[in-house]
Amino acid sequence: MNDKYHETVLVEEVVSALHIEKGKKYIDATLGNAGHTMEILGKGGQVLGIEIDPKMLTIAEKRLEKEVVDKKNCKLVQGSFTDIDKIAHGSKWEKVKGILFDFGVTNLHLKDSERGFSFGNSEAPLDMRMDPETQGVKGSDLLNLLREDQLRELFEITLDPGSAKWITGRILHSREAKPIEKVGDLVEICQGLRSSKTGLNEATLPFLAVRIAVNSELTNIKETLPKAFDLLEKGGRLVVISFHSKEDVLVKNFFKEKIASGAHAITFRPVTAGGAELEANKRSRSAKMRVLEK
Ligand SMILES: C[S@@+](CC[C@H](N)C(=O)[O-])C[C@H]1O[C@@H](n2cnc3c(N)ncnc32)[C@H](O)[C@@H]1O
Fold first, then answer.
1. How far does the centroid of ligand 1 lie from the alpha carbon of residue 30, in Å?
2. If the chain, 294 residues long, is cut into consecutive pieces of 10 residues, what is the mean pLDDT of each piece?
3. Is 48 in the pocket of ligand 1 (CB under 6 A)?
4. Would the N or C end of the chain have less CB density within 10 A of its end CB?
5. Quick check: 26 and 20 in contact, CB under 8 A?
6. What is the pTM of this model?
7. Residue 169, annotated ligand binder?
8. Which of 205, 161, 199, 129 has its CA nearest to residue 189?
9. 12 assigned binding-site residue
């Protein structure tokens, strides 16, 4: 386990799917700590890297500074991939050969005990914003302000309806006594939740639902895939890695729509990690990669 950097998933699969050609342009729309970007640069591609989290962008910049000899082929922008069209135009990165999305957060987000992404530090604020400078609503705000039906809908992103109803009831009860503010408050609320997935901590899926809602992760995907597809040159490829069934279904449906109007499916079933990667990197277990060619 590499403690310093996020462990990049499906590296060989992504490199092969992107068909990297020397001097051609690519967009890494979820830069993270530049794991995939370094591979593309290593094969001679030019990369525009987009990262929403300013802290993560700094980590990526430092890593590239240290580990990549020739940085002229790489341009990094802080922003949301929902603005991929504007960012690409502003960077003169139009008609690209390949675009990669590797959704979610990094190990570094989960290990950052101050940001509330994981339940490790019960005293941390329940924040979970990927970009605290532009996003106003924290996880605790949602749990304190949403109506009952809205809370149920939020938790149904990752939980079955019965569990979502159960946890909503606990939240309504808890916030009557005092506002929900810390990671520990939500951990306590989750105690006794029967998770439908064995082996998972009872707080894992509720925390994931709150994170997805705080960062509008599903709407962002829906809004962005068409913009990304438009940026591809003919024969260009869209490579998308998702980690959650609700993400994957959005990708699958978008790909279906495009295939019906002439795009080519490169993967007929999602590509998943092989034995060695599954052993080495726990996160790779839920990774699903789909590839589409324009
Ligand atoms: C799974 S990580 C990517 C890891 C990266 N492929 C690597 O190998 O280092 C996902 C990254 O996307 C970023 N991200 C999430 N939502 C985003 C958005 N709307 N726009 C841009 N970046 C986003 C997260 O902050 C996180 O760093």
1. 4
2. 74 96 97 96 97 96 86 94 98 96 94 91 96 96 98 97 97 97 97 78 94 98 98 98 96 98 96 90 91 98
3. no
4. N
5. yes
6. 0.96
7. no
8. 205
9. no
